[in-house]
Amino acid sequence: MTRIEPNPHSPYADADPDARHLLPSPIFFPDPQPGALALAACLRLAVVPAETLRAVHTIPDGVFPEGMCDACINAFHAEMAGRDVVDDRPCQTCSACGSSTRHDGLCALCRQEAHARWWAEQAAASTTGEPRPTA
Ligand SMILES: [Zn+2]
Ligand SMILES: [Zn+2]
Hints:
Layout: E1 37-39, E2 45-47, H1 55-58, H2 70-80, E3 92-93, E4 100-101, H3 108-125
Antiparallel strand pairs: 1-2, 3-4
The chain binds zinc ion (2 copies).
The site of one zinc ion has 9 residues, from helix 2.
């Protein structure tokens, strides 16, 4: 089995940078834009890769490729079984907007805004138009 690449790097992602994360199902959400910071199944933020991995379409038997985030896999199975996925990280106050967040001191919305600016800067600074990998 081939190992799947992790999601693209962002300093504002709080999901495990060495794992590939499952992104929201397009049944309930609009398709996430590649390069955007989105909430993964493990409830952490990861950058949407150019090729989205869709659990429902590509993983019919629940067998995930190597390199997948364990928490995302657990969340996938929990969802299939109708159980809620809970985020057990401590609640903190967002240092930018003051809202309550579990995303390590900076809330999801502030992370997404900061990421969008950072991503655009990376793209502008790159001759290929693609953000340079900085991991
Ligand atoms: Zn994950
Ligand atoms: Zn915030």
